Amino acid sequence: DQQVKQNSPSLSVQEGRISILNCDYTNSMFDYFLWYKKYPAEGPTFLISISSIKDKNEDGRFTVFLNKSAKHLSLHIVPSQPGDSAVYFCAARLSKTSYDKVIFGPGTSLSVIP
Amino acid sequence: DAGVIQSPRHEVTEMGQEVTLRCKPISGHDYLFWYRQTMMRGLELLIYFNNNVPIDDSGMPEDRFSAKMPNASFSTLKIQPSEPRDSAVYFCASKPGQGSRQPQHFGDGTRLSIL
Fold first, then answer.
1. Interface test with A, best of B10, B91, B100 (most A CBs within 10 A)
2. CA distance B95 to B37
3. What pLDDT, in 10s, does the model give residues B47-83?
4. Closest residue in chain B to residue A104, using alpha carbons only
5. Chain A residue closest to B96 (CA)?
6. What pLDDT band is residue A98 in, cutting at 50, 70 and 90?
7. Considering CB atoms only, which of A36, A43, A93 is closest to B109?
8. Quick one: which of A37, A32, A27, A30 has its CA closest to A75?
């Protein structure tokens, strides 16, 4: 029973265009969401996050949008660059916990074509 | 600064053998996590520690798996006996204790193959 879903296993985008990666969640108790990026043979690295009290957070070329009513978030990359080719994991944290346990989605592999 | 260090990077062994994966977290980080990544299940949390104490081991698949953290700078994940279905990439991650929104920092993983 996956609480964090990324229904697109892969995505191909032309360099310079927008990449949109989607994530859906089922647990309304999630209060904080994160995106991690992973290159082959490396561990995931933190990319951007958003609190459940916001609907948008922007950091350079990366923007995360949160739609709480739909339990949906998305990561936009504009413009996409070949170096953005990686696996992107969506993750969510349960609120009111004494620790930082996050649940990861299965990941979406992004290929940016030069 | 050194990140999370995992060893070995690759491990190939025969089923039935004991496997020990090692992790050195970032100095000063109070939390340590062990994850397993497979094609079928993605990135799943196995166990995590806070100040060297195991807090949640509900993700440990079965009794063949055990994890320890004898001190703040070292943790092990042991599989005994190993089985082919344990083949996966195992990641260790750490995070600071203060500020619950601090992201986790991951090591580069151990790719485990059980023949």
1. B100
2. 19
3. 999 999 999 899 998 899 999 999 999 999 999 999 9
4. B43
5. A100
6. low
7. A43
8. A37
